[in-house]
Amino acid sequence: MTDSSGDRAGPPADTEIRDEDWEGREVSGLSYSNVVFVDVDLTEVTNDGSIFSECTFRRVQFNASSHTNSAFLNCTFSRCSFFGATFTGCKLVGTTFDRCTFSTLKVDGGDWSFVGLRGADLRGTSFRGVRMREADLTNVRAEGATLRDIDLTRASLHSANLSDCDLRGSNLSTLDPATVELKNAVIGWEQAVALVTSLGLDVRPD
């Protein structure tokens, strides 16, 4: 569902916050539900423990912002910028990203299960120790990204480009090497055996 501007519509909103400059603000410990943020500048914002539930963010700048132990639950991000943003121990379950930019985004820990990142450009990003169960990563471009120790159980990776990716420690049980680009990707020995086995080969000691 899209609005007249062509952006993907989020959940019904009780409040709209538009054209505000919050650059450098401390927004910790706050709670927002069913709020639409439009053209809001959240550059260098510090967020520790805030909760955003079923909120929509359109053309919002998250550049160089810092989010710790915070939650964005069932939210929608449309055409937002996350250049240099960091998320540490955050929960983004059920959240969807549409035509966003993620250059140098860093994610450390947290739960991103059921996240929608279909077609996202994740080149140059870093995800470590993140739970991404049943995430939609269809057609993502993640060349050169770091995706270490990620729980990708039942995640959709069809037509993803993971070339030159560091995938060590990640659960690749649902990855189909026939439909994913893996040239020069870095994996561990156990992952290598699992991938070879998924191709139907019988791996035995010499």
Molecular structure report:
This protein is elongated. With 206 residues, it is mainly β. The protein is built from one helix and 14 strands; from the N terminus they run ββββββββββββββα. Helix content is 5%, strand content 24%. A six-stranded parallel β-sheet has the order 4-7-10-12-13-14, with no helix packed on it. A five-stranded parallel β-sheet has the order 1-3-6-9-11, with no helix packed on it. The model is unreliable at 1-5 (pLDDT under 50).
Task: Record the SSE blueprint.
Blueprint: E1 15-18, E2 31-33, E3 35-38, E4 46-48, E5 51-53, E6 56-58, E7 66-68, E8 71-73, E9 76-78, E10 86-91, E11 96-98, E12 106-111, E13 126-128, E14 146-148, H1 189-198
Structure keywords:
5-stranded parallel β-sheet, mainly beta, disordered N terminus, 14 strands, 6-stranded parallel β-sheet, 206 residues, elongated
Low-pLDDT stretches are 1-5
Shape category: elongated
Helix content: under 10%
Helix-and-strand structural type: mainly beta
Briefly characterize the structure.
The chain has 206 residues and is mainly beta. Helix content is 5%, strand content 24%.
